[in-house]
Amino acid sequence: MKKLSQWPVLCAIVVLAVACGRPQAFTAAEQCIIDRSAEVMYVTVIGADSTVLRTPSADLTPAELASDRLKTLMDKMYSTVTSPQQDGVGIAAPQVGIDKRVIWVQRFDKPGEPFECYLNPHLDSLWGEMTHGPEGCLSVPPMRGLVPRYSAVKVSYIHPETLEPRTETVEGYTAIIFQHECDHLDGTLYIDRADTVFLHASWKETRAQYDYSRPAWWPLKENQTN
Ligand SMILES: [Zn+2]
Question: What separation in Å is there between the alpha carbon of 171 and the centre of ligand 1?
Fold first, then answer.
């Protein structure tokens, strides 16, 4: 009888151990951001949000890749980068407070110039002529800079629909967007690479009509300043 009476306790311990050992899909803070954000998410900015912007992002775990929450994050990141107040050509997850390897890139090299999402992207190689082109960043208002970039990249990633690994070669302006967004995933901003950084004259006029303030419920605390 005594041994039998211990079974419920033993079973509870085993269940707890299995649950704790399962890979978690996103941290509590990340879940809060994904679930509570509006369709157009708060975009992190240098200074106030430098910790999340400067922290290298982790690859999505198998549990995260299979989660509905990832789909929600992808949808909201798309709504954010294509919103009139941001009007970007690419966005990386640290820019919405999530240090995970997820990016959207506008494919100017494809018909219709669609936005496409890439999971766990990594630049395997960069080559070609270096060009110095103007860049801005949703997370570095109100600046622009002249940044040297390679003209071609080879990117490996997980396809968001099939979840299959893929590799692709990209050239031209779209290759520059891939470099800018993958830099974000390594905690690097274009101002780290820029030859010169200058004020973007029309920034205030184009953005004055929108609210860019951080939500009151925002779970991340700031402790870094650049
Ligand atoms: Zn950026």
Answer: 19
**Position 21 in a domain:** no
Give the pTM.
0.88
Residue 51's CATH number: 3.90.45.10
Left, alpha or beta for 68 (phi > 0: left; psi -120 to 50: alpha)? alpha
Domain membership of residue 220 (yes or no) is no
Specify the DSSP class assigned to residue 131.
E
- In this predicted model, what pLDDT tens digit does every residue of 142-179 receive, in sequence order? 999 999 999 999 999 999 999 999 999 999 999 999 99
Other C-beta atoms closer than 10 Å to the C-beta of 51 total: 17
Ligand 1 centroid, distance to 12 Cα (angstroms)? 47
What CA–CA distance (Å, rounded) separates 141 from 192? Answer: 15
CB 53 within 8 A of CB 139: yes
Q: What separation in Å is there between the alpha carbon of 177 and the centre of ligand 1?
A: 9
Q: By percentage, how much of the chain surpasses pLDDT 70? A: 88
Please tell me the distance between residue 181's alpha carbon and the centre of ligand 1 in angstroms: 6
Instruction: For residue 143, give its domain range.
Output: 28-207
Catalytic residues: 181
Question: Has residue 123 been placed in a domain?
Answer: yes
The set of residues, in sequence order, having a beta carbon less than 8 Å from that of 46 and lying 6+ positions away, is 53, 139, 140, 189, 191, 226
Residue 212: count of CB within 10 angstroms of its CB: 12
Domains in the chain, number: 1
Ligand 1 centroid to 188 CA: how many Å? 9
